[in-house]
Amino acid sequence: SGRRKPFSDDEQAAAGDSVTQYTRFEYILNLNLKDSDVAKEFVELGYRGIGHAVSRKDFEERKRRAGIVLSTRREGPPPITSDSLTVIEPFAKALAFREEANRTTKLLTIIFIRDKNSVGREISAYIDFAHRLKLEDFTGFFTGDKKLVPLSSDLSYYNWDTHACTTNDTNNFSLLANAVSGIRFRCTHDRKVIFVDPESKQYGDGTTRT
C-alpha cells in the first residue's frame, strides 16, 4: 500500500483559514496582489512569482474541501471502527493502524489487491482506503469475517480474464495513465504524484510504500 500525508495540522489549519475567510476568488487575488488585471491573470493561469499558484478552479475546490473539514470538526471526530475490536490478521492490523489517520485525511493510503472473484476470475484494484471507509462498514474486515475485495468503483479495477477495466477519481486521488510510465495517481489535496508501479525506483514526494 502507498501512504502519503497531504498536509501537516498547521498547514491544514492555515489553508482552511485562507479560503474560508473569503467567499469569492477575486478577494484572495486582491489580498495578495496589487489591484491589477494583468497580475490577476498571471496568477489565475498559474504564475508562481508570489506565494503559490492559485487558479479559480483550485480556489473553489480548496474552499469546498475546507468546508467539509470545518463541518467535520463541528460534528466531532469520526468514530474509529477498529478501536473496539480485536484485530488479529496482519493486513487488517496494518489498516486498523491507519484507520483514524485516513478518516481524518491526516494520512491517505492507496491499497493494491489482486484476488479472485466469486466465479474464480482474477481481479485487481487500487483502492482509496479513506474513500472506502466512508462507504463501507469495515467491522467484518477487521474481525476477519470478510475480505477486502476489489470493486469496479475503486480507483482502478481490472479483470485479468475478461480484460475489463474501470477507473474512477475520488475526493483524494485522480488517476494519471501513461503508456510509458503506467498508472500514477495525483493527490487532489497537494497535487503531488504517487507512483504505484512496483518496478518504480521512486514512490513520489512525501509517499512511502509498505
UniProtKB/TrEMBL annotation:
<comment type="function">
    <text>May be involved in spermatogenesis.</text>
</comment>
<keyword id="KW-0963">Cytoplasm</keyword>
<protein>
    <recommendedName>
        <fullName>Cilia- and flagella-associated protein 299</fullName>
    </recommendedName>
</protein>
<dbReference type="InterPro" id="IPR027887">
    <property type="entry name" value="DUF4464"/>
</dbReference>
<dbReference type="GO" id="GO:0005634">
    <property type="term" value="C:nucleus"/>
</dbReference>
<dbReference type="Pfam" id="PF14713">
    <property type="entry name" value="DUF4464"/>
</dbReference>
<dbReference type="GO" id="GO:0005737">
    <property type="term" value="C:cytoplasm"/>
</dbReference>
<keyword id="KW-0539">Nucleus</keyword>
